[in-house]
Write a structure and sequence with these properties.
single chain, alpha/beta, four-stranded antiparallel beta sheet, 17% strand
Length: 573
């Protein structure tokens, strides 16, 4: 599908009709050499551009981005399930890096982390930042956001919710909080700052009449407040309200709009939490389990009691047969040191409790989806996805993200909208494909620095060839102050996951880990999984590395390292 062509072709035809009509009424003219009219293309192009601006029928677009969403939660959400049944569902949807900030930077620019240079959540070295907002702006990514391309082609753009890690207010010389800087590419700007991880008690941004960023306080309601009052200040619900305000303001505009809605859920809270609410995954009060009833509360389409650890694919699988493998000369292999050496501290009881709280958490997101779909209408493209997945007892890594495995890298990708043919899609897509897809739908050119590929045509043509492989990359970094993905409440192990690059195809997953965490040397070792069972059950690199499917994955993996954008794109085909 090329959604852009219908609008552009219509505008062009109307322009031609108008030009012919003008000639019939006025008759031929004699023009002086060198005048504007002497150029036969000048006036029609200008007229067509003006006419297109007044007859813009390009679709509105909404991206709903969840945070740390794992696929087993989708079946609890009635509206998301309905959306999947009515739209396109990409079964092989992945993220380029299963860590918040590198993933979000990649999504916003369509670039790989080795191009954005946003490798971690925090800057680490202020002089040479490797992550967070500091790295995102230092290395020119702000100017490469796809929203700027949408603006240039006439879209009104809005952002609501969680932006880039460490995009925060600062303290001025007078001791007062100073708003973070204005971000180009967005006409409306309602970012919820980091305090929103706790659900209540945080600040958000807005643009004043002069276009300057200002802060708005969202104080924590007192414990004596009613459930309705408390939940009115819940981060997901405030995000919803901002989103609905934007849609209401712009849905009748002559120009189309793009809106990104980035929810904080179901990410865990950080340090602070609502008094008396001790869970690491705080749902809205309306969805919480009653005191003394851990299996109660609102888990959407399912009873919370029906959610069990069996839903967490690969939960508790022993890691003894997952150690990486060295590859030596002549194809000889030997076992490398295991890197999953953490203490398994997450108990079954804690895992189950947190799984159910995460299910309760996403119900407020699901209600938001319902209201956004109703407000936006059927002629709007709505995309539902996540910045990464989340493991909760799988791989014996306790709870967290960052690993190259399905629990962490596979995310939902559900799309509804005009001309979308309902059904499942088998093409491989990555979150770096979203930027070129949005630009494609808008009729905007895709810059050459983009490493992703548009999948817009597959929305109306489900069987169209597309991606066959997905690539992942991740950079090891010791946690620094400001790290939001320690996942302490789940026994998180983000600090032990080595750097890696990986490729996922229909026949398996190949990962090359760098076991040298010094950032100076390298110590490469491999893991290979066939998915005989629906998780990374056993590393088969030693026995399979010479087989054709493994050789194909290895060839692509070697070519991916440091690839230029055009090469990155080609390797997925």
């Amino acid at each position: 599908m090329k959604p852009k062509w219908s609008a552009l072709l219509g505008a062009a035809l109307l322009a031609v009709v108008a030009l012919i009509a003008g000639l019939l009424v006025l008759g031929p003219k004699t023009v002086a050499a060198g005048s504007a009219a002497a150029d036969p293309s000048a006036a029609p192009v200008e007229d067509a551009a003006e006419l297109a601006a007044t007859t813009d029928e390009r679709p509105n677009m909404v991206l709903i981005l969840m945070d740390d969403f794992s696929l087993e939660l989708l079946r609890t959400m009635p509206e998301a399930t309905r959306m999947a049944a009515e739209g396109a569902t990409y079964q092989n949807s992945f993220v380029i890096d299963s860590l918040c900030c590198p993933s979000r930077a990649a999504l916003l620019t369509g670039q790989t982390p080795h191009h954005t240079k946003v490798l971690t959540n925090t800057q680490n070295d202020p002089e040479h930042p490797v992550g967070g907002w500091s790295a995102f702006q230092r290395y020119g990514n702000v100017e490469k956001q796809f929203s700027i391309g949408l603006q240039e082609t006439g879209y009104t753009t809005g952002f609501v919710g969680k932006y880039i890690n460490a995009y925060e207010a600062t303290i001025g010389a007078d001791g007062k909080r100073v708003p973070p800087p204005k971000v180009p590419g967005w006409d409306s700007w309602n970012a919820l700052l980091g305090g929103a991880y706790g659900g209540w008690g945080y600040q958000s941004t807005f643009l004043d009449g002069n276009g300057a960023v200002q802060l708005r306080n969202h104080p924590r309601p007192p414990p004596s407040a009613s459930t309705a009052v408390k939940d009115a200040g819940y981060a997901t619900n405030v995000t919803r309200d901002y989103a609905l305000d934007f849609i209401e303001e712009h849905r009748d505009d002559e120009e189309p709009y793009f809106l990104e809605i980035a929810a904080y859920g179901p990410h865990s809270r950080l340090g602070h939490h609502y008094p008396g609410l001790d869970t690491w995954f705080p749902p809205a009060f309306a969805d919480q389990a009653p005191a003394g009833d851990p299996a109660g509360g609102n888990c959407g389409q399912l009873e919370c009691a029906d959610l069990t650890l069996k839903d967490l694919v690969g939960y508790g699988d022993d890691r003894w047969d997952n150690a990486p493998t060295y590859l030596g000369r002549g194809g000889r292999t030997s076992q490398a040191p295991a890197w999953r050496t953490n203490k398994v501290s997450l108990t079954d009881q804690t895992a189950l409790s947190q799984y159910r709280d995460r299910a309760r958490m996403v119900q407020s997101i699901d209600r938001m989806i319902t209201q956004v779909r109703k407000a936006a209408g059927d002629d709007t493209y709505i995309v539902l996805t996540s910045d990464n997945g989340f493991h909760l007892g799988q791989h014996q890594l306790n709870g967290g993200k960052g690993a190259p495995y399905d629990s962490d890298t596979r995310v939902p990708m559900v799309v509804v909208g005009p001309d979308v043919v309902p059904g499942r899609r088998s093409q491989f897509v990555n979150n770096i494909d979203l930027a070129p897809t949005f630009l494609d739908i808008a009729g905007a050119p895709t810059p050459s620095y983009v490493s992703g590929s548009s999948f817009a045509e597959t929305l109306s043509r489900p069987r169209l060839p597309g991606g066959r492989y997905a690539f992942f990359e991740h950079t090891y970094a010791k946690s620094h102050p400001g790290e939001v993905d320690l996942d302490k409440g789940s026994g998180g192990t983000i600090d032990i996951i080595p750097s890696y690059i990986a490729v996922r195809g229909s026949q398996g997953l190949l990962v090359r880990f760098d076991l040298d965490n010094s950032w100076k040397g390298t110590d490469y070792a491999y893991e290979l999984y066939r998915y005989d069972r629906p998780w990374e059950d056993r590393n088969v690199f030693a026995e399979d590395h010479a087989k054709p499917y493994a050789r194909d994955l290895m060839r692509r993996l070697n070519a991916y390292e440091g690839c230029a954008p055009a090469v990155c794109r080609a390797l997925t085909r």
